[in-house]
Amino acid sequence: MDVSELFTRLEDERQLTPDLRGEIIRIFGDRGRKALKAIDEHRIKKYRDFFVVVGTSDEYIVEDEFCTCPDALYRRGSCWHVLAVRIASLTGDYEKYDLWYQDNWNAGSPADKQYLS
Ligand SMILES: [Zn+2]
């Protein structure tokens, strides 16, 4: 199974079967493992404006291939947050919030998120 086949299967099945979990780890390695762990622990949140992934020390905003984590900003690599959101958006494994995430960070949020506003 290649990457595009994997995402097609996820879209069809709309759930993480043991098969698909195995493929995700085979294709993406450690990135896949971290993404699955975050999904299993319900750390993917969908606000009205953005997807947010809760990491160990901070939470990151993900939009398509864009993420606010240091990995994505400085190494320009696709990080596991982007992968986790891509998987979760197909399977529906995310917590949905009827709120604007932007409203959250205007009040006393870390400076590193300000550039987005
Ligand atoms: Zn990231």
How is the topology of this model organized?
Elements (H helix, E strand, L loop, with lengths): L2 H11 L4 H11 L1 H11 L3 E3 L4 E4 L4 E5 L2 E2 L2 H6 L4 H12 L3 E2 L4 H6 L11
The chain binds zinc ion (ZN).
Explain briefly what this protein structure is.
By secondary structure, the protein is of the alpha+beta class.
What would your notes on this structure say?
- With 117 residues, the protein is of the alpha+beta class.
- It has one domain.
- 49% of the residues lie in helices and 14% in strands.
- Strands 4-3-2-1-5 form a five-stranded mixed sheet, with helices on one face.
- A hairpin with a 2-residue loop joins strand 3 (59-63) and strand 4.
- Helix 3 (30-40) crosses helix 5.
- It is globular.
User: Order of strands side by side in the largest beta sheet?
Assistant: 4-3-2-1-5
Low-confidence sequence ranges: none
Question: What is the rounded Rg?
Answer: 14 Å
Bound molecules: zinc ion
What is the N-to-C succession of helices and strands? HHHEEEEHHEH
**Class of secondary structure makeup:** alpha+beta
Mean pLDDT: 89
User: What composes the largest sheet?
Assistant: 5 strands, mixed
- The total strand number stands at 5
Number of helices: 6
Which percent bin holds the helix content? Answer: 40-55%
Q: Span between N and C termini? A: 40 Å
**What general outline do the C-alpha atoms trace?**
globular
Overall tally of structural domains? 1
Q: How much of the residues is beta strand, in percent?
A: 5-15%
